[in-house]
Amino acid sequence: MRAFGVLLSGLVGSLALGAASAASAGVLVASGDEWTLSDFAYGAPYQAGTTAFVQDLATTFGGSNYLLLTGNGNVPTGQLTQLTSQLTSLGKTVETSATFSLAIASGYDAVFHFGQGLTGGQFADLDAYVSAGGDAYVSLGGGWYGSAAGEAAAWNPFFADYGLAAGSTWFTAPGFVDATVTQGPSGATNLIWGYGQSIDRLPAGNGVSYVRGSFAGGPQDIGLVGSSQPLGVAPVPEPATWTMMIVGFGTAGAAMRRRRARRWRFEMTPPTTRGS
């Protein structure tokens, strides 16, 4: 049993180290439209869906100190009063900043971005922030890169590290429309949509299609919001981790069988007769 204990301890240690590394990274949530959390989203007929969506985000992110980025003419500070009110009611301290950098974000548990254009250095800062354990909600559709294709080209190298990809077409038409949620948080039956682009998971990545929706006249069941990991669900071991576990337990079992066989061989061997 001692051999099994040593092997099991080593296996558990390896798994714990891997889990700790995965747990150290924060959660990235990406929406294809910057208006999804605006004050317009808290009006009829979107209020219930928006409230449920924000509740799920706050539960996932945890923490208590949130930063809202407001340096975007499309979604100014005045359009974030309802979001601020709901987050405050959930026990969060909410502050705003017109600029983003790692130095600014590092003092907060979560950062919310509303379509602002980012420089290469800011993309690197955002990646460093999430990698270090910060949670981030980012949104596209702001038009800062000239077109949906330009926006996708700017964001997709960053998204690829999180298993996500932005589409290259804005839909459905300029103005606000109602997105019927086909997959998403409990209670988020519909969300506002303001001419944004799709966010879907990469087939070979770890990203998740967090919210999917359909529109009258199309498109149908398209990715609206993606996440770097399942929201509201405890992480499970990756296939490689399961393989390690199986191999580890198999090795431990083999060691136990060899040890048991040696013991029985010793016990069944007749005693030798000493010479007189």
Protein described:
The chain has 276 residues and is an alpha/beta fold. The protein has one domain: Rossmann fold (3-Layer(aba) Sandwich), CATH 3.40.50. It is 38% helix and 22% strand. It is built from 7 helices and 11 strands. It has helices spanning 2-24, 47-61, 81-89, 102-105, 120-131, 148-160, 239-268, and strands at 28-31, 65-69, 93-97, 110-112, 135-139, 164-171, 177-183, 190-193, 196-201, 208-214, 222-227. The strands form 2 sheets. It has a 9-stranded mixed beta sheet with strand order 3-2-4-5-1-11-10-7-8, with helices on both faces. Strands 6-9 form a two-stranded antiparallel sheet. A hairpin with a 7-residue loop joins strand 10 and strand 11. Helix 1 packs antiparallel against helix 7. The longest helix is centred in the last third of the chain and has 30 residues, at 239-268. The radius of gyration is 26 Å and the shape is globular. The two termini are 40 Å apart. Mean pLDDT is 82; it is low at 1-22 and 233-276.
Report on the biggest sheet. 9 strands, mixed
CATH class: Alpha Beta
Tell how many strands the DSSP assignment holds. Answer: 11
**Helical percent range?**
25-40%
Number of helices, where a helix is a run of at least 4 consecutive DSSP H or I residues: 7
Task: Give the SSE string.
Answer: HEHEHEHEHEHEEEEEEH
The gyration radius over C-alpha positions equals 26 Å
Major sheet strand order: 3-2-4-5-1-11-10-7-8
Distance between the termini: 40 Å
Number of domains: 1
Poorly predicted residue ranges: 1-22, 233-276
Approximate strand percentage: 15-25%
Mean pLDDT: 82
The CATH architecture designation is 3-Layer(aba) Sandwich
Structural class: alpha/beta
General shape = globular
What is the CATH topology? Answer: Rossmann fold
